[in-house]
Amino acid sequence: MKLKLAIQKSGRLHDDSMKLLKECGIDISNGVNKLKAEAANFPIELFFLRDDDIPQYVEDGVADIGFVGENVVYEKNKKVDVAYALGFGKCRLSFAVRKEENFSGPQFLAGKRIATSYPVLVQEYLNKNKVKAEIHEISGSVEIAPGIGLADVVCDLVSSGSTLFMNGLKEAETILASQAVLIKRKDFGTEAQSILERLLFRIESVKKAKKNKYVLLNAPNDQLEKIISLLPGMKSPTVLPLASPGWSSVHSVIAESDFWDIIEQLKGAGAEGILVVPIEKMIL
Ligand code: ATP
Ligand code: ZN
Asked: Could you tell me the end-to-end alpha-carbon distance of the chain, in angstroms, rounded to an integer?
């Protein structure tokens, strides 16, 4: 059997979805103009769809799994499971108000007209905060609604905030932090599950590799102990003697997050010739 994967046909999630599959060593041969494509070297079949439709297709079992934004998953509220956070397509669903206004809290929204493509999530927020407001559902270009007098407030996806800014708005309150996730349908057979596990194993290796760097450096032997103590390594660092006496070459893996800190400390401890190399895959 083949696992059927639904991804966005075109738009913000398309390229990152295709790139992730490629990094997992999955070759997608035929073009994106079609509705479907097959992998040559992995039991998977792709469906190219509008992102809004992906949860429904997965609920119905037309697709087994899908890559889609959490914002869409929670707005559509279909019977699917979120199986894995993919780490791309990061954005926020936020209220935005006119630049000169001051969002004092949920009560600010009382009686206001809110333009959004996310009526379900906005209503949930209003209910939770016991606020009554009017929701105007618009499917695109929500940020222009206040300017044309259609709404007082918007609730829309934001990443940098520049679209809001260009429309005289500012971000006021985030109601959902979102990223692309892998969703799967509820009744999953054992064969489908074992293909999914193979896919997740690959995705995990790619993600881990991106979060880490391979570091090589030269260390004076009298500082070796100090330098090794600074390096976490997967088990412990590799140490090899250099041709010039009194020096060793040290190899290790450092997490991106504490990278600069560690590099500074290594230099301080006398490390020289520090090389930092990206890692393609990381299997632990
Ligand atoms: P489609 O034609 O598939 O319906 P769309 O216009 O609804 O496309 P895009 O704008 O391509 O969707 O966004 C797809 C997803 O990308 C969003 O649902 C969201 O999860 C994610 N995303 C990431 N950053 C942003 C952003 N700054 N603005 C909008 N969406 C973003
Ligand atoms: Zn869409």
From this structure: 28
Judge whether 134 and 157 are in contact, CB under 8 Å. no
Tens of pLDDT, residue by residue over 161-217, are 999 999 999 999 999 999 999 999 998 999 999 999 999 999 999 999 999 999 999
Provide the CATH topology of domain 3-88+180-209: D-Maltodextrin-Binding Protein; domain 2 (3.40.190)
Q: Report whether CATH 3.40.190.10 matches the domain 91-178.
A: yes
Nearest CA to ligand 1 atom 14: 12
Whole-structure pTM value: 0.89
Numbered ranges of CATH 3.30.70.120 in the chain: 212-278
Best probe residue, ligand 1, of 7, 10, 12, 13 (max atoms within 8 Å of C-beta):
12
Q: What is the pLDDT of residue 234?
A: 65
Residue 163 CB partners (closer than 8 Å, separation 6+) = 143
- Which of 3.40.190.290, 3.40.50.720, 3.40.50.150, 3.30.70.120 is the CATH number of 212-278? 3.30.70.120
| Cβ < 6 A, ligand 1 pocket | 8, 11-13, 50-52, 69, 71-72, 89, 91, 157, 159, 178
C-alpha–C-alpha distance, residues 198 and 18, integer Å:
17
Taking a C-beta distance cutoff of 8 angstroms, is the pair 152, 111 a contact? no
Report percent pLDDT > 70 for the chain.
98
